[in-house]
Design goal:
Structural class: alpha/beta
Largest sheet: 7 strands, mixed
Number of helices: 6
CATH superfamily of the largest domain: Vaccinia Virus protein VP39
CATH architecture of the largest domain: 3-Layer(aba) Sandwich
Bound molecules: S-adenosylmethionine
Order of helices and strands: EHEEEEEEHEHEHEEHEHEE
Distance between the termini: 61 Å
Length: 259
């Protein structure tokens, strides 16, 4: 059903702010914008008579089509590799696509597939994926990289993030994963691992990550600027098996069994 267009009114005068307070009690206010010399108010229905005679009211015409605009119309599937795409749930799968598909809503936590560091991480993971029996996503954000492991059939997935909102988003996206609030020290030992964070965050987290990565399956690090790659790589102490840069962000991957 098409939603009814809101009614929009401009209120001017010394009592405009008091009129808005009154409207919050006596009308269904959808929004208000405070300008330098006027208040604009969005209402569900017609403006009731205001008990502020000095307030000058002008109705602003609204295109009824605008009531249906959600801001999501321009969303498209993101083809990360020829056989790997990310899309929000409200965007249809492209006809004929038969690769790995990650359906991630764009919400409060980082990681909807648009950012170069996420794409680099996904491309690296995709190139090196070696079916680890257990896998961890450090700095999960939305949980998109953990979702990749799930889509590839990994039976035991753990994830962590220092942000409560990211932990909640990951739990919602992947109810079967063990999601911890905190850094890599909260994680169990795992066969494969991914982390997409800034270079300095990665360097700080690396000792705890390396203590949990069992070096049996791939490790992927992303979010690095080109000049940060060597310092972080030196901490891993294994040859880089795959490297990819998307925009300003580089991801490097290490194969398991290297040591
Ligand atoms: C760039 S976002 C990556 C999100 C998602 N994994 C992706 O690839 O799109 C980095 C995330 O790491 C989290 N983070 C930063 N430092 C962390 C740390 N030491 N341990 C765990 N998470 C951390 C941030 O809260 C943020 O959600």
């Amino acid at each position: 059903m098409t939603p009814a267009a809101p009614r929009v009114y401009e209120l001017r005068g010394a009592d405009a702010a008091a009129a808005l307070d009154w409207l919050h009690v006596h009308a269904d206010v959808h929004g208000a914008l405070e300008g330098d010399d006027a208040l604009t108010v969005w209402l569900a229905t017609q403006l009731p008579p205001l008990p502020f005679p000095a307030v000058v009211v002008r109705e602003i015409a609204v295109d009824p089509q605008a009531a249906t605009i959600t801001g999501l119309e321009a969303d498209r599937p993101i083809l990360v590799a020829a056989d790997l795409l990310v899309r929000p749930p409200w965007v249809a799968r492209p006809a004929g696509f038969a690769g790995v598909e990650l359906v991630v809503p764009r919400g409060g936590a980082f990681g909807s597939g648009e950012h170069g560091s996420t794409q680099a991480a996904l491309r690296c993971l995709h190139a090196l994926w070696d079916a680890p029996p257990t896998f961890a996503d450090v700095g999960a954000g939305s949980g998109i990289l953990a979702l990749y492991a799930h889509a590839r059939g990994c039976p035991r997935i753990a994830a962590c993030d220092i942000e409560e909102s990211a932990v909640m988003a990951t739990r919602e996206l992947l109810p079967q994963a063990d999601v911890f609030l905190g850094g890599a020290e909260t994680l169990p030992a795992v066969h494969g691992m991914v982390a997409n964070m800034t270079g300095s965050e990665l360097r700080a987290a690396m000792p705890a990550m390396l203590a949990r990565w069992q070096r049996r399956h791939a490790l992927v690090l992303s979010g690095l600027r080109a000049h940060e790659v060597d310092a972080v790589g030196a901490m891993v102490g294994a040859p880089v098996a795959y490297r990819v840069t998307v925009g300003d962000f580089t991801s490097v991957g290490y194969r398991g069994g290297a040591r």
